[in-house]
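Thread: Newbie trying to understand structure tokens

Hi all, I'm a second-year student working on a class project, and my supervisor (Dr. K.) asked me to get a predicted structure for one chain before our next meeting. I've only ever worked with sequences, so writing a 3D structure as a token string is new to me. If someone could post the tokens and maybe explain what I'm looking at, I'd be very grateful. Here's the chain:
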Amino acid sequence: MSPTRDTRRPGVRTRRIALRALLGAAALGAASAGLLWLGYGGALSLSLALALPATENWLPGTEVTREEVPIPFAGRTLAADLYRPAHRPARLRGVILLVHGLSPAGRRQPDLTRLGRLLARHGQLVLVPQFDTLAAFTLDGTEVAAIGAALDHTASLASAVAIAGFSFGAGPALLAATERPGIRLAGSFGGYADLRSVIAFITTSEGAEQYNRWKLLQLLAGFVGDERDRSRLDAIARAKLTNSSENTGRLESALGEDGQAVLALVHNSRADAVSPLLARVSPSIHAALDRLSPLPVMSRLRGRALIAHGRADISIPYTESLRLARAAGAHAVILNTFHHTGPLSLPELVGSGALDAWRLVSLADALLRAREP
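---
Reply by user tm_fold:
Sure, no problem. This is what the structure looks like when written as tokens:
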């Protein structure tokens, strides 16, 4: 029996084959998307809301409540916000402590409050304390102990505890995490490894912003042992942060040796001068830089290290996160379309953000799974 010939025109046959292939691909894509959503649904919606804030209101998730809670610390209390699902889920994911960076808004910095709300929408308890020194653009070493007290309080809320620090708050957060072996996950987002490297970057890198230079001055002012120089440097930094063209000559001429050494370091723009200028600052400043740099203790972390950074960061170089990850035996997630505080413009995200999108999903998934061993 001879085979039946297909008498349809070649063009019709080609279109039908193409249509079947297209339908098959669509079915496969839909099935893959369904499996992806089952496995990463929460992470997908969380990462989408992080990259595109306008999508937050129409993405799935439960309602969230925020309450103020006091945390005992050194004879006083730290103010903190606790974000929790309005309707307690059957399976509470755990609790995560968020540590803000150098921001006058502190725990109420808009991006941080949005992150706390988004994590809580996905079943996570989120504690965000106020660290007044960080809100004042300074570090004085008490942050590590304060974060430790916050971690102790966090541990009373759930058995699975994670911590994530941002920008200059990431260093103290990592240092506090190394002192508590029960931490499931310690995250650093846009953080630093060694403050000396950050000083060199802010003062000498091409395209460095003057605003960051004055933030650095205010941070370093807190390390100066002489009270009068500390006060004058702080006043100079505040004046320049308010108006970069402000004349601070009178304050600068009144500085002593310690203050002049710090000011010269901040004014410098030559890479080859950083080491000699650092050598001039007081031993108390070197001790503070050592004490607040987490790089030497990263190997002490017992939980998972989650390290991420925006490649376009002009405040802290992304190479700092590479160093942190190597020291912790972890992998750093470098987001090509992110700067210091978030994603770049929407066109840049659309044009080159496909790989970053998956990286962001993986970060979101890690945060949501922080309760798991």
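A couple of things are worth pointing out once you decode it. Strands lie at 64-73, 76-85, 94-99, 124-129, 161-166, 185-189, 304-310, 332-335. The longest strand covers residues 64-73. Feel free to ask follow-ups in this thread.
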